[in-house]
Design a protein that fits this description.
The protein has one domain. Strand 1 and strand 2 form a beta hairpin. It is rod-shaped. It has a two-stranded antiparallel sheet with strand order 1-2. The chain contains 2 helices and 2 strands, in the order H-H-E-E. This is Gas vesicle protein. It comes from Candidatus Gottesmanbacteria bacterium RIFCSPHIGHO2_01_FULL_39_10.
């Protein structure tokens, strides 16, 4: 249970060293096989060809996506323009409807005012009398 920290860290450091040594050796062996033998060179060439093919496919897909994005942007602009047109049309129609309604309301107000004046005069003549004669204002 009583561990010495110095022996523990040394053991861990040696483990990392051997792991790094093994990985480095493995990578070195792969490079030697790929570059040092005919089969390795063929395999490396095939890997390069595959990589170039993937790169071309990726470039094609990016190009198609960019074109599709431009198309969608153009469609969105058209939809926006149509919506603005319709809003302007509706605004004009609504403006005309509102003007008509306001004219009707003003006409009704004028009629109500005229009736109010008539009623006021009638009340004035009927109820505001002095010695049986209507008061003149």
């Amino acid at each position: 249970m009583n561990e010495n920290p110095s022996t523990h860290s040394t053991g861990s450091g040696q483990g990392n060293f051997w792991l790094g040594f093994f990985i480095g050796g493995f990578i070195g062996a792969v490079i030697i096989v790929l570059l040092g033998s005919k089969e390795g060179k063929k395999f490396a060439s095939k890997l390069l060809d595959e990589g170039e093919l993937w790169e071309e496919n990726l470039e094609e897909k990016i190009k198609k996506l960019a074109e599709k994005g431009e198309e969608l942007l153009a469609e969105a602009q058209e939809v926006k323009e149509k919506a603005v047109e319709k809003i302007e049309e509706k605004k004009e129609v609504m403006g005309e409807v509102i003007v008509e309604k306001m004219d009707q309301v003003l006409t009704n107000i004028e009629s109500a005012q005229a009736k109010g004046m008539e009623l006021t005069q009638e009340v004035h003549h009927r109820y505001f009398k002095k010695d049986g004669k209507p008061l003149i204002s």
